[in-house]
Specification:
With about 400 residues, the protein is an alpha/beta fold. It is built from twelve helices and 14 strands. The chain starts with a helix and ends in a 14-residue tail after the last strand.
């Protein structure tokens, strides 16, 4: 009996020492309950392309922090939901993440018709929400929501574009076309004001429904009004269709500029040589990054390519930046309090100062990013060349065909 007891004791001690040793060698993320964050994106439906891109940026940021051992030894678990590009689904998915899953914070979101409802539910339940793609001013200005933050803002598009148009292109007669979404409508109104203040007539100012399949009547009006510059506030598929129909109808303009959807490698691939000379805008792209962050940008591009077997783009970076903000705030809150809650996370988000490839991210009192600024690019022989502002330009405007 003594031998058996002694043998059992030795085995138990050996097992205990093995267990302790195993835990010392194992990643700390395996030893504690995970921290959960939620994302809501249009992974299906008409906005699925950009929703998937945002999702991949967020996922990369979460995997990146987990590879480093998580947040103070706790794994970060990403819980993803698809809003199907529909506001009513976005509301249901937000409630599920807040009630059912109990996430510490939310991120993701593309277009304000989806972001707005998410922000309202998040505020109601004191859960911070860092939106990846949001522009509509009244989501922050004049409607205090201490739980809402975003990594983009309309001023960061309107101001550089207005400067480019009035100081570089100097149109004689402009046309503005825009999608019937809150952010695009507000953008169009701002551009009309900018042009009129510069003495540029806006002969055509038209709105279209998302999913429009024919722009022929608009192009006919454009020809009749003799506009020389078109500012198009549509999205990726709208630009593809519009640019192709312009080519088919042999409509020649001095400049075609689309702030969203043109500055993408996939747009250049789809359009081929017909993309030459078109203008777009972006906050980031491979090779177009905030000065001083070139090394971090290259590391992101290489890591993303390895993980997803494709090139990241500006929308991917918006998702990545929003997730980085939320994760950084969680780490600060954990370090101070040993846990996270909505109010603690919001305090840390308000005090953040992060240098990311896309921007120096500091939130103002409304939750808007102070330093968000896009650049104007022109597609030149299959490459995106930064042409404005002057201090970030990598080339000059070209007018000749390739």
């Amino acid at each position: 009996m003594t031998v058996q007891v002694s043998h059992i004791f030795r085995l138990s001690a050996l097992a205990a020492s093995f267990f302790i040793g195993f835990n010392l060698l194992s990643p700390p993320v395996l030893l504690a309950r995970p921290l959960r964050i939620g994302e809501i994106n249009p992974l299906t439906g008409k906005l699925a392309k950009h929703g998937q891109e945002i999702h991949e940026g967020i996922l990369f940021a979460v995997e990146e922090v987990n590879k480093r051992g998580g947040i103070l030894g706790r794994e970060v678990q990403l819980v993803s939901r698809d809003d199907q590009s529909l506001p009513e689904v976005a509301i249901n998915q937000t409630e599920d993440l807040v009630y059912g899953v109990g996430v510490a914070g939310l991120t993701g979101g593309y277009v304000d018709s989806l972001v707005g409802p998410i922000s309202e539910i998040a505020a109601r339940h004191r859960v911070p929400y860092v939106a990846s793609a949001s522009l509509q001013r009244n989501l922050t200005i004049g409607r205090r929501n201490p739980y809402f933050f975003r990594v983009s803002r309309l001023d960061g598009i309107v101001e550089p574009l207005c400067g480019f148009l009035t100081s570089q292109l100097r149109p004689k007669n402009a046309a503005v076309l825009f999608s019937a979404t809150p952010g695009s409508s507000e953008f169009a109104s701002e551009m009309r004001t900018c042009l009129k203040q510069a003495g540029v007539p806006v002969s055509t100012f038209d709105k279209f429904r998302p999913g429009t399949s024919d722009f022929s009547s608009f192009l006919m009006k454009l020809r009749m009004e003799r506009a020389d510059v078109l500012i198009s506030g549509g999205f990726f598929p709208d630009h593809l269709l519009l640019a192709r129909q312009m080519k088919d109808q042999k409509l020649s303009l001095r400049a075609y500029l689309g702030p969203w959807g043109v500055a993408y490698p996939s747009f250049i691939e789809e359009m081929g040589s017909a993309s030459h000379g078109l203008f777009g805008m972006c906050a980031w792209n491979p090779g177009i990054t905030l000065p001083g962050t070139e090394q971090a940008s290259e590391a992101f591009v290489n890591g993303f390519r390895t993980r997803f077997a494709k090139q990241p783009n500006t929308t991917t970076m918006h998702g990545y930046s929003s997730a980085r903000a939320l994760l950084a705030a969680m780490e600060k809150a954990m370090g101070k309090h040993g846990g996270v809650n909505g109010d603690a996370l919001c305090r840390e988000l308000r005090s953040l100062d992060l240098l990311l490839p896309m921007e120096r991210l500091v939130f103002d009192d409304n939750g808007d990013p102070r330093y968000y600024r896009q650049v104007v690019v022109q597609i030149q022989e299959g490459r995106m060349v930064t042409v404005y502002p002057p201090d970030r330009a990598t080339g000059s405007i070209v007018t000749e065909s390739p």
